[in-house]
UniProtKB/TrEMBL annotation:
Keywords of this entry: Signal
Highest taxon of the lineage: Bacteria
InterPro entries referenced in this protein's UniProt entry, alphabetically: Solute-binding_3/MltF_N
Protein name from the UniProt record: Amino acid ABC transporter substrate-binding protein
Organism per entry: Noviherbaspirillum galbum
């Protein structure tokens, strides 16, 4: 793709954090599943990437204020539509329940069983604050205090495994790619396991700040369509899925 001279040196601010395999640094460069998908989009649209390492909740605030341009792995919700555009879907995100290895056989057939198990253990289930899981789960979390009391929202998702291993949480809900990668590569996850309880599978998007210049938005949208049509994004997804 030949880029107009006026596009040279234009950059977009993109949120990342250490969350392998979605985002991680290696030899000073950011990589990972979501980073590769974003890089393909940014390059195709004629921009350069400026990565900002930010916690999830702060990044949402920056996107709303226009201090950040793009987030990856974003669920589409009515409240977010007030301050961001959605390009995608970027990919399908599956959430799994992670527990200590000795509890992988807990008899859980659904969310009510999970809440009952947490109540019996006088414990909670860890979740990421300001994350979105599914329409039904999010609505129940917001409207049913008896249900919500058994979930422990944290600002930084990296504390969730530690709280489960320490027995402060019965388990936690997390992205399947992240958990599978950590189980293979992180010694701290050796005593954890994915429970077979089926949870959520929903599309996630590139979230773009509504403060962005309309021409830049059009370039990103057009670039996404070209990449989908050419199969570039599908090949990136397939390569990472094979490593799961």
């Amino acid at each position: 793709m030949v880029l107009p001279l006026a596009w040279a040196q234009e950059s977009l601010r993109i949120r990342v954090t250490e969350f392998a395999p979605n985002y991680f640094q290696k030899e000073g460069r950011w990589g990972g599943l979501d980073v590769e998908l974003a890089e393909a989009l940014i390059r195709e649209a004629g921009f350069q990437s400026m990565y900002l390492d930010l916690p999830w909740s702060r990044a949402l605030g920056y996107l709303q204020s226009g201090e950040l341009d793009v987030m990856m792995n974003v669920s589409r919700t009515p409240d977010r539509e007030a301050f961001m555009y959605f390009i995608g879907p970027e990919r399908l995100s599956r959430r799994v329940l992670v527990v200590r290895r000795e509890q992988a056989g807990l008899p859980l057939a659904g969310m009510d069983d999970l809440v009952k198990a947490a109540a019996q253990a006088r414990s909670t289930i860890g979740i990421q604050k300001d994350a979105r899981y599914s329409e039904a789960f999010d609505r129940r979390l917001a409207t049913d205090s008896g249900f919500a009391q058994y979930f422990d929202p944290v600002v930084q998702g990296t504390v969730l495994p530690r709280k489960t291993l320490a027995g402060r949480n019965l388990g936690f809900i997390e992205d399947e790619y992240f958990v599978a990668y950590q189980l293979r590569n992180n010694p701290d996850f050796q005593e954890l396991a994915i429970h077979p309880l089926a949870l959520f599978a929903d599309p996630v998007y590139f979230g773009v700040s509504k403060a962005i210049d309309p021409d830049k938005l059009r370039r990103l949208e057009s670039a996404f369509q070209r990449l989908e049509k050419s199969g570039v994004l599908a090949r990136i997804r397939a390569r990472w899925a094979a490593q799961k």
